[in-house]
Design a protein that fits this description.
4 helices; alpha+beta; disordered N terminus; 3-stranded antiparallel sheet; globular
Length: about 240
């Protein structure tokens, strides 16, 4: 496996592997860590299939209501969506949503491509996370790849990531928002962290990606960087 500006001539001593997989069944809430996941044309199956809307039907996120980062979304054994272990459409969850976002706010199911802010998949690397120097959950990745040197991920846009039968296209680096300033456990805000991303990384960390060929991935799977068809592929699902 090779890396570098030309993706040739630079041998890697350590193979890249999937080290973490995350799914966020309820958009803008905390997610669940998985050992394996199925990927389709809209990313990880069950990811961000429910979101919050206000009384005017506008989507609400933790950018304006950071308390939503506290509750945890998950999928049950039969694909049922839960919030802190409760059915997402239960009266208790509805009351909590209105307590955070105001009267009329509610959870809404949406399975279409429009549910994503950018692309269906966000991929982070251990090298960039180490350079970031803070809890990587602030970046809300779907997949974390280990065995990546420094900020090498910045050379990947236009390439593909092959994980077994799965082929992931890399579009560009993700421009980060104020959500990175909130501690995922305490919800305490430190705006210096977001400012640091802009000062040190031009505001961008982790990769906007899309699925070219679906399938199943698991923690420990080897990851290979590929050129060729990847460079010409474009995501047209949005």
């Amino acid at each position: 496996m090779t890396l570098g500006g030309s993706y040739a001539g630079q041998k890697r001593a350590v193979a890249m592997k999937v080290t973490e997989i995350w799914r966020y069944p309820v958009k803008t809430m905390a997610g669940e860590k998985l050992q394996r996941a199925g990927l389709g044309s809209l990313g990880i199956e069950g990811d961000r299939v429910v979101h919050v809307e206000n009384d005017k039907g506008r989507v609400i996120t933790s950018r304006s209501h950071p308390r939503f980062l506290g509750p945890k979304g998950s999928l049950g054994a039969h694909g049922d969506i839960k919030v802190d272990g409760r059915p997402w459409d239960s009266p208790a969850v509805a009351a909590e949503v209105m307590d955070i976002a105001g009267p009329g706010a509610k959870l809404v199911r949406c399975d279409g491509a429009e549910r994503f802010d950018v692309l269906p998949l966000l991929v982070a690397t251990d090298g960039a996370i180490a350079a970031f120097g803070h809890d990587h959950r602030r970046l809300r990745p779907n997949i974390v790849i280990g065995g990546v040197e420094g900020l090498t991920e910045g050379q990947w846009p236009g390439a593909c990531l092959r994980i077994g039968k799965v082929l992931i296209g890399v579009q560009d680096l993700r421009l980060r928002c104020i959500m990175t300033s909130f501690d995922p456990d305490t919800l305490v805000q430190d705006k210096a962290i977001t400012r640091g991303i802009y000062k040190r990384f031009d505001g961008k960390l982790a990769l906007n990606c899309f699925v070219i060929e679906g399938g199943e991935i698991a923690v420990g799977d080897e990851v290979n960087l590929e050129r060729g068809r990847a460079g010409a592929a474009q995501y047209v699902g949005l």
